Automatic annotation (TrEMBL):
The keyword Nucleotide-binding applies. Keywords: ATP-binding, Kinase, Membrane, Nucleotide-binding, Phosphoprotein, Transferase, Transmembrane, Transmembrane helix, Two-component regulatory system. Its EC number is 2.7.13.3. The chain crosses the membrane at residues 168-188. InterPro entries: HAMP_dom, HATPase_C_sf, HATPase_dom, His_kinase_dom, HisK_dim/P_dom, HisK_dim/P_sf, Sig_transdc_His_kin-like_C, TCS_sensor_his_kinase. PANTHER family: SENSOR HISTIDINE KINASE TRCS, SENSOR HISTIDINE KINASE YKOH. This is histidine kinase. It comes from Desulforamulus ruminis (strain ATCC 23193 / DSM 2154 / NCIMB 8452 / DL) (Desulfotomaculum ruminis).
Length: 461
């Protein structure tokens, strides 16, 4: 998952959780405030009603035992306005119940007998059942509790408020969620953008392109970008010094190597008939040749780095060049007991430096032959694909370890499975430089079942 996507999801998750918590807290606060308001309202109404009941008894000079006689009239008067009022005696027996002046027959629910009993002790008490509040208060006459007055208050209005609030919160959450998503995408991209730039810088550094990066920031990312630029400058300077050193050493070695090579060839004729000296001179000549080849390769790369290596381009019949190259390799194929199987489309031309493109092809074919098993075969194909010529070289050799594939074009680098086979590690680096100079591409992959596939793409003319 990309960093920007991850940041966006983090922001969105945190926001939605916060909205859920805030919404829950708001609903609970409204519910709590609503219940407190209902409770205060019922307390006020019950106090007024209790006073009314007590005054009615006193005015009519009735005692507590006459409460049952006037209870229907009292509930009828008190319930005006769609309220439900109930009056109970001291034994919690229902004396009368009315709704908006109309008498009702009701059955007292068991859970609320505790509420009524609590009211007989002179306390306010209430319970909630089926979205109705059952609020009980004592009826006092001359300091004594003679019964219980119960209000049944419906909560549908409070529930409507809570439902409406929920809808508003849901709608707000959707709108806010959309806004925060857009904002999260913007913030994530804003945060990740300089990180992407630094990633591109590291990728350029991996390709040895040490172009400085400039991020006009004063935060940690800005400090990191400046550190990257400084590191790139130091690496570029180090690599340049290293290449200059190799070029200087190679150039200095060339003259004495030429002399050694010349004297070793002269000594070949001078020591004939002396087996021990002939062997020594033979090895001297071979090693000086190998060392001279290495020096020439290093000098070639140093000239390419300095853009001083000349390329002489002309229209080349690459099909014919490949046939001639394969003929030159016949002796080498006999040595390694490898067969070359060529399928070359004729009369395909490219714009190339014939000598250097031959060198590149020879390097690749030599590797394919050298790393193939005895009695193995190397397949070569040359064909046109659109406006590009494709050269494919396929072998059944040891292949390249997956962890080495991205390093094989580095100078002096050799795969971990080729240590026992001679080589300098410069052939593929030189080949890629030559192909790149021809505006082509070079790709090497492992072949299913073992071996490698080398593919060169060159512009056809």
């Amino acid at each position: 998952m990309k960093l920007s996507t991850r940041l966006m999801l983090y922001y969105l998750t945190a926001t939605l959780l916060s909205l859920a918590l805030v919404g829950f807290a708001i609903l609970k606060a409204i519910e709590h405030y609503g219940m407190e308001t209902v409770e205060e309202q019922l307390k006020t109404q019950s106090d007024s009603a209790s006073v009314y009941v007590a005054q009615s008894l006193l005015l009519e000079k009735l005692g507590p035992q006459e409460l049952a006689a006037i209870a229907p009239r009292l509930t009828g008067n008190l319930s005006a306005g769609s309220r439900e009022i109930r009056i109970y005696d001291e034994q919690v027996q229902l004396l009368s119940a009315a709704v908006d002046g109309v008498q009702q027959t009701v059955q007292v629910e068991k859970p609320f007998t505790d509420t009524l009993t609590a009211a007989l002790k002179g306390n306010y008490a209430y319970g909630i059942h089926n979205n109705d509040v059952y609020f009980a208060s004592p009826i006092e006459l001359q300091g004594a509790v003679i019964g219980v007055l119960e209000f049944v208050y419906p909560l549908h209005f409070l529930n409507q408020i809570l439902t409406a609030t929920q809808k508003v919160l849901y709608a707000g959450a959707v709108v806010f969620g959309i806004l925060i998503t857009i904002l999260s995408i913007y913030i994530a991209r804003k945060v990740v953008k300089p990180i992407k730039q630094l990633v591109e810088v590291t990728q350029r550094f991996a390709r040895r392109d040490f172009t400085p990066v400039h991020l006009p920031r004063n935060d940690e990312i800005g400090q990191l970008s400046r550190s990257f630029s400084e590191m790139g400058s130091q690496l570029q300077d180090y690599i340049q010094r290293q290449r200059q050193f190799v070029a200087n050493v190679s150039h200095e070695l060339r003259t004495p190597l030429t002399a050694i090579k010349g004297y070793s060839e002269y000594l070949i004729d001078e020591v004939k008939g002396r087996a021990d000296l002939e062997k020594a001179v033979y090895h001297l000549n071979n090693e000086s040749t190998r060392l001279a080849k290495l020096v020439n390769e290093l000098l070639f790369l140093s000239r390419v780095d300095a853009r001083r290596e000349p390329f002489y381009f002309s229209r080349v019949d690459f099909s014919l060049l490949m046939r001639e190259t394969l003929e030159k390799l016949q002796i080498r194929t006999l040595k390694y007991e490898v067969r070359l199987q060529a399928n070359l489309q004729p009369n395909l031309y490219i714009w190339a430096d014939e000598e250097k493109i031959t060198q590149a092809v020879m390097n690749l074919l030599d590797n394919a032959i050298k790393y193939s098993p005895p009695q193995g075969s190397v397949e070569i194909e040359w064909y046109l694909e659109g406006t590009r010529g494709i050269l494919a070289i396929m072998d059944r050799g040891m292949g390249i370890p997956a962890e080495d594939l991205h390093k094989i074009f580095e100078r002096f680098y050799r795969s971990s499975n080729t240590k026992a086979i001679g080589g300098t590690g410069l052939g593929l680096a030189i080949t890629r430089e030559i192909i790149t100079a021809h505006k082509g591409s070079l790709d090497i992959t492992n072949r299913p079942g073992g071996g490698t596939v080398v593919k060169i793409t060159l512009p056809a003319v």
